[in-house]
Write a structure and sequence with these properties.
Helices cover 47% and strands 15% of the residues. The protein is of the alpha/beta class and 365 residues long. Strand 6 (77-81), helix 4 and strand 7 form a beta-alpha-beta unit.
């Protein structure tokens, strides 16, 4: 790997680690804690690749991307950020950053991505970078695990396409929230977002009514595996007659639809129509490192909503980490909502938490 890399991060340790690793790999490195200094280097024509944090003392790395694009079209930028939310990933994608990595990042992974970025710069013509849109709300999609970051990047890639998206995962994992995020950050965000069940397709005017309500927007087919034969037939018919103003189709399912097709419980033509892109949301038990982040998110939101401040003791946090969470994120949210109301102390302790969890036994929300 060779080239000049500009590193901007207000964390001295990160600057040192990246400088040492990139230098050993054969690169020349300029490192700074200042966005202003980074922009001066860019204006001077320095650098074949930028690695930048988002929040710095004198500015925002994401907000600098359009300016970098105007000054140096085609200069790849890798965004690294401790703001591990879907909004950050989407903003980075909308601004056409070359890549986005959450902190703490895997150094070998960052090195591989840097090598690819340098190679692409040598091979690919300059591209214009779009201006990022302001975030559209506080979506409760929180996670820094590799699985969730990969999910965020996939959402960012598909949001402005017209491909149908099938979102799979266990109950309570947040499938509908993912669908809503795809709509809210897409070019269709000013148009309707409509949720449809099998009952909505019934009747003489069911299909026409749904298409009219969701015209130009997004239509979410909720739990498509629950549709009976008649509902599946109506859904296929609706997808076939949709015109140029048809909604973008999103669908959710707890079930393995490919298996349902094999078992004869789901129409093959419906499966193929819905499966443009499949996004699988991992269960909470496979996202143990995200449980603390989610708990803090729900407690903070509850504090805003009901004015009650509660925090978890370290021992209670450990209980959260080892609980199996059969109801996934929804169960975690409901447990913490109850504790916000019922806990008598500022700190939620182990006995209170175990009581809310049903004596330590898994409980559905």
């Amino acid at each position: 790997m060779d080239g000049t890399i500009l590193v901007a991060d207000d964390d001295r340790t990160i600057r040192t680690v990246l400088t040492q690793a990139l230098t050993r790999a054969g690169c020349k490195v300029h490192a700074t804690s200042s966005l202003m200094t980074l922009m001066r280097w860019v204006e001077e024509g320095k650098g074949d690749l930028v690695i930048s944090d988002v929040i710095m003392p004198d500015g925002n790395g994401l907000e600098a991307l359009p300016r970098i694009a105007r000054i140096r079209p085609g200069l790849p930028v890798i965004i690294i950020s401790a703001q591990n939310t879907i909004m950050t990933a989407i903003q980075a994608a909308e601004a056409e950053a070359y890549d986005y990595l959450p902190k703490p990042f895997d150094l070998p992974d960052l090195m591989k991505r840097s090598a690819r970025a340098l190679d692409q710069k040598r091979r690919v013509a300059a591209a214009v970078v779009a201006t990022p849109r302001e975030p559209g709300g506080d979506l409760p999609l929180v996670g820094r695990t590799a699985a969730m970051q990969a999910l965020y990047r996939l959402v960012a890639k598909v949001m402005n396409t017209d491909l149908p998206v099938l979102i799979t995962g266990e109950s309570g994992t947040g499938k509908s929230l993912i669908a809503r995020a795809i709509h809210d950050f897409s070019d269709r965000r000013s148009q309707p977002f409509v949720l449809a069940t099998s009952a909505d397709l019934s009747g003489v005017d069911g299909i026409a009514t749904l298409l009219a309500k969701s015209r130009g927007g997004s239509l979410l087919i909720d739990e498509v595996a629950d549709f009976d034969d008649d509902g599946q037939a109506r859904l296929v018919r609706m997808l076939d007659i949709a015109d140029g103003h048809a909604p973008r189709i999103l669908a959710t399912s707890q079930a393995d639809l490919a298996q349902r097709v094999e078992e004869g419980q789901l129409r093959k033509d419906l499966f193929y129509r819905l499966g443009g892109v499949t996004i699988t949301v991992p269960p909470l038990r496979e996202r143990v490192e995200d449980i603390g982040l989610l708990a803090d998110h729900f407690l903070t939101r509850g504090e805003r909503e009901i004015g009650t401040t509660r925090r978890l003791t370290p021992e209670a946090r450990n209980i959260l980490r080892v609980h199996p969470w059969p109801g996934n994120v929804r169960q975690l949210e409901n447990v913490l909502k109850r504790l916000l109301v019922t806990s008598s102390d500022p700190e939620i302790n182990v006995p209170e938490l175990e009581a809310a969890l049903g004596g330590g036994q898994p409980t559905e929300p």
